[in-house]
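Example 3.2
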Amino acid sequence: MNLQNDWEFNVLQIYNYKLDGKLKEYFNFVTANFDKLEGDICEVGVYRGFSILATGLLLKELGSDKKIYGFDSFSGFPSYHENDNLNKFKDLYAANAISKKHFEEFQLNIQHKEFISGKGVKPSSISSSLDFSETSLSLLESKIDYLGLDNIVLVDGDYKDTMKNKSFTNVNFMSALIDCDLYESHKLALPFVWDRLVGSGYMYLDEYYSLKFPGARIATNEFFLGKQDKPKMYSQNLMDFERWYILKNNSN
C-alpha cells in the first residue's frame, strides 16, 4: 500500500517520511544509500511501529528488496539500572558530558511533568508513554499485513536472548535506528548493531539527546570510548532537539 496523504499516516499512527520531521535525516540517509550500501536495516525499540512501518513503506516505494529487522520485547521496560536514575543527568552535566542547555531542559521537563501529574517523577513515569507496556504486538502485526509490508521482520523477546540468536550471524546492516531508551538495552544493542554495520553505514541515536533517559547517553559514550568513530550532532537542530548520529568508517 502506498500512502499519499498526511492524514493517512496520522490515522495509522505512522511517521510521515514525506514531510520534514525529527527523523528527516534518518530517512534521507536510507533514501540516498539504499542502492549504494549492502546490508539490511535494523531498528532497536519498535514500540507501536511508528518508524518501522514508515521504513517499510519507504523501501517499497524505492523498489528495494532490503528487509527491516525490528527488535523489541513488546512487554514494557525491563528492570532499571542505576544509570537510568534521573539524578545521573546531574552527574553528566558535572562531567561536561552534556551541555548546560541540555541539563536545564531536563530540569524544565521534570518541572512540567511534576506540575501535570501533581507528584514526583521517576524513570518509570518520566516518559509520556510510561513504561511502554501498552505496546500491542498483534496490532502491529495486523498493520504490517494490512499495508502489505513483507519486508519487516519483528524479533520479539529480550535482547540478551534474541541478539545472541545464530540466525543473525551473517546479517549485515546499512543503517540502524537505536531507540531503546535504557542503559542495559543500549549496552546490548550497540555492539550487536555495530558489529553488523557495514563500512559507511549509519546509526541514528534517537535517545542520545534525551530529557528522560540518561542511561542512553552513558551507555553510548562508554561504547564509543576509544573508538575512532564518535557520535555527531546535526548542524541544524530539528524540532527543537539536538539530533545525533554516527557513521561507521570504512576501515572499522
